[in-house]
């Protein structure tokens, strides 16, 4: 009697698996294609808003080559809001987005503090080694463009933007939206899914490139690494809040030390005030079932 071998029920998983309707825990409902679409749409909206601001400023007598701190601040604010708006629009194409889809979730304070400390130490140690290797020097251009040394009003506006608005908007877009979408990419190597790591690398690169123009070119690599670390922090904690906190702390430290030459108590006060403001603005979004649109 002729027999045939039993069917092979074990098959190797393909190296690349498209995201399907099934998604893992802590993964948003929007698809991978929304990540590049979000970058393109946000950039287009930001440029459009910037052109309008520049035209109105020129009509008012402001120089396009040397804009006032108010014009620079408004342009930077519009760019951040443009990317937030792009993320909300694209996410809404897959249903009404919930705040939790972007990572607005409560997390244990002690766990969050430990994760922030570990991520921060890793970032600063590696950045310090990189700085010694390439003889890193120079400062972030953004605070000076915002006129932190010209007036108290400019200093207050720049501080709020750098330490509060930017951490909220950039974490929302990069770690909440972009990283969330790219994590749905299943990439298997030796039977293990490394999609999350690839997503973190890509998001980190995009985060670094987003600071082109506002930071010296030699700082783009450390900023890219910071973006990568913030992705891992978002992944491991399951929440956007620790990343916002570390982002704000880093910006406050850089602003206080490099631009303002503040002493330790002043910098700590800036950090504390910034974190409390972020918590007051975004904390309510962690309520269960809260919708963003």
* Amino- and carboxy-terminal Cα gap: 67 Å
**Major β-sheet profile:** 3 strands, antiparallel
What proportion of the residues form beta strands (DSSP E)? under 5%
Helicity, as a percent range: 55-70%
What series of H and E elements makes up the topology?
A: EHHHHHEEHHHH
* Count, helices: 9
Helical/strand content category: mainly alpha
Overall pLDDT metric: 86
Question: What ranges have pLDDT less than 50 throughout 5 or more consecutive residues?
Answer: 1-14
Gyration radius from CA atoms, angstroms = 21 Å
Would you write up a description of this structure?
With about 290 residues, the chain is an all-alpha fold. The chain has a domain of about 180 residues. The protein is about 60% helix and about 5% strand. It contains nine helices and three strands, in the order E-H-H-H-H-H-E-E-H-H-H-H. It has a three-stranded antiparallel β-sheet. A hairpin with a 2-residue loop joins strand 2 and strand 3. Helix 3 runs antiparallel to helix 7 and helix 5 crosses helix 9. The longest helix has about 30 residues. It is globular, with a radius of gyration of 21 Å.
